[in-house]
Design brief:
The structure is a single chain. About 70% of the residues lie in helices and about 0% in strands. It is built from 8 helices and 2 strands; from the N terminus they run H-H-H-H-H-E-E-H-H-H. Helix 4 packs antiparallel against helix 5 and helix 4 packs antiparallel against helix 8. The two termini are about 15 Å apart.
Length: about 220
Amino acid sequence: MNQQTYPASERPLPVALLTLSGGLQDAYTYLRRGRVFANAQTGNVVFLGQSLFAGDWGQAARYLLPLLAFALGVAAAEFLRLRPSGLHWQRRVLLWEILLLFLVGFIPHSLDQLANALVSFCCAMQVQAFRKVEGFAFASTMCIGNLRGGVESLCAFLRTGDLQERRKTWLYFFVILLFALGAAGGSLAVELLDLPAIWLSCALLALGFGPLARS
């Protein structure tokens, strides 16, 4: 299928910007907001279970809050999708994400749990709204599904020589690389900028806003 037939949200440039932002968000919350994962909630489930087993209810709440915020973020994205507006729903998701992440940059360390909840909420909206790259399922805020898809496509290409599978392999590993670069950039940014480092994520999302006008 010709790339021009894909919606703008599935093309490489917006996907790249969203993925860089996703990596930066995870590095930001883990390194500057109390070692909580905003994007991949599996780690929070592990820490939540550990805290409950130890009877540390305060620590358990620390990991439960982003989980609940993530669930609410998915629901919010679905609300925007189902509610008609003059502005495409994916662009509305980005506008809310940019606004909330901008506010996060002002939240002090004493309210890290609130900051983490807001980032998790934004992450969930993003992962719910942007789910494909060139027709293939992917995630811009975590890597496990992309890694599975990339290896599966690579095996299929080596077995059949199908060029479509080769393209999928390239796209999946490209996304994983971008996520890693976003996390690396986030690690550097928090050292230089501290809490306002999340505004770099806002900038990346704003750059991705323009191409979605053609969605």
